[in-house]
Specification:
The complex is a heterodimer. Chain A is mostly beta strands. Chain A has strands at 4-7, 10-13, 18-25, 31-37, 44-50, 53-57, 64-70, 73-79, 87-94, 105-106, 110-114. By secondary structure, chain B is mainly beta. In chain B, β5 and β6 (44-50) form a beta hairpin. Chain B starts with a strand and ends with a strand. Classes of the chains: A mainly beta, B mainly beta. The A-B interface holds A 4, 6, 40-43, 45, 48, 56, 90, 92, 97-101, 103-109 and B 4, 9, 32, 34, 36, 41-46, 49, 51, 90, 94-95, 98-106.
Chain lengths: 115, 113
């Protein structure tokens, strides 16, 4: 596979469940990101990892827990979510930190529904 | 405060006509500006960026954008629209404080045959 892949593509979970989102990039990039996308709102940056070190955590609730075991893989662990957490979760990667000048490459996203 | 505005929620254009998707920004210092496109059920794809140099930037799929410092704008343009250009378009600017991207809310572009 090429580019950035995300699994699962769709996830329905109850508020008491624990689940994980997986992202894998095949581009040899050094930075990876989790975003939350809600309809008609700007993308919300959740976490940034550069060379496997977390460099940003934008006041995300602790019910979201990221993990970056190596530069190619990124996970988002979910537990005791709320209905307002329902959204499209996008993973992205870039050669370096995107805010410098590098463009980001996005996966197709995981559509999460919390019931 | 640093920000990006996409003033139009939706833009409708007839196929073959020129299209413009607007973006204005507010940042301190020199802006780094980006355009991304999102097709249905897909992630975002990079279209083009302005870092420095020529104010007119050319990107993928025949799109271009013009950086206008005096108007703090970075509008996306294409001379002749295709139905396949129908998608959601996002403008973003670098936040010079923490080097993250600040995103606009997106503009839905609809090209009618």
């Amino acid at each position: 596979e090429t580019g950035v892949t995300q699994t699962p593509r769709h996830l329905v979970m109850g508020m008491t469940n624990k689940k994980s989102l997986k992202c894998e990039q095949h581009l040899g990039h050094n930075a990876m990101y989790w975003y939350k996308q809600s309809a008609k709102k700007p993308l919300e940056l959740m976490f940034v990892y550069s060379l496997e070190e977390r460099v940003e955590n934008n006041s995300v609730p602790s019910r979201f827990s990221p993990e970056c075991p190596n530069s190619s893989h990124l996970f988002l662990h979910l537990h005791t979510l709320q209905p307002e957490d329902s959204a499209l979760y996008l993973c992205a990667s870039s050669q370096g930190l995107a805010g410098v000048s590098y463009e980001q490459y996005f996966g197709p996203g995981t559509r999460l529904t919390v019931t | 405060a640093q920000s990006v505005a996409q003033p139009e929620d939706q833009v409708n254009v007839a196929e073959g006509n020129p299209l413009t998707v607007k973006c204005t920004y507010s940042v301190s210092g020199n802006p780094y500006l980006f355009w991304y496109v999102q097709y249905p059920n897909r992630g975002l794809q990079f279209l083009l960026k302005y870092i420095t140099g020529d104010n007119l930037v050319k990107g993928s799929y025949g799109f271009e954008a013009e950086f206008n410092k005096s108007q703090t704008s970075f509008h996306l343009k294409k001379p002749s629209a295709l139905v396949s250009d129908s998608a959601l378009y996002f403008c973003a600017v670098r936040d010079i404080i923490n080097y993250q991207l600040i995103w606009g809310a997106g503009t839905k572009l609809i090209i009618k045959p």
